[in-house]
């Protein structure tokens, strides 16, 4: 099995554990957004604020914060960008667990990054 197929299989087998302290990052296709609402960083649950503040992205610029209703329950999406213009959408559970990290690209003039 080549490395790409092996990685894809591992990603598909990733599960979200909201009950315990253990989690794995989910495959991009594992989350289906049903609705989203723009909120302020200060409106995030304290666990999410703390998790972001302790993450490798804490020094990145926050472009947008959203409360997202998904088929997996409520999540909080932080869209972040660094000085190299690397751009990620980070999805946190209400308990502050990073459940999905999606790298995005954006072209010049694309303010929405999508």
TrEMBL record:
<feature type="domain" description="Putative beta-lactamase-inhibitor-like PepSY-like">
    <location>
        <begin position="36"/>
        <end position="98"/>
    </location>
</feature>
<dbReference type="Pfam" id="PF11396">
    <property type="entry name" value="PepSY_like"/>
</dbReference>
<protein>
    <submittedName>
        <fullName>PepSY-like domain-containing protein</fullName>
    </submittedName>
</protein>
<dbReference type="InterPro" id="IPR021533">
    <property type="entry name" value="PepSY-like"/>
</dbReference>
């Amino acid at each position: 099995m080549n490395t790409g197929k092996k990685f894809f299989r591992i990603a598909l087998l990733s599960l979200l554990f909201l009950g315990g302290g253990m989690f794995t990052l989910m495959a991009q296709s594992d989350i289906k957004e049903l609705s989203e609402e723009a909120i302020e960083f200060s409106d995030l649950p304290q666990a999410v604020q703390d998790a972001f503040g302790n993450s490798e992205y804490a020094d990145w610029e926050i472009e947008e914060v959203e409360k997202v209703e998904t088929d997996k329950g409520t999540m909080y999406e932080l869209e972040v960008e660094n000085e190299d213009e690397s751009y990620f959408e980070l999805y946190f559970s209400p308990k502050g667990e990073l459940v999905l990290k999606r790298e995005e690209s954006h072209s010049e003039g694309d303010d929405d990054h999508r």
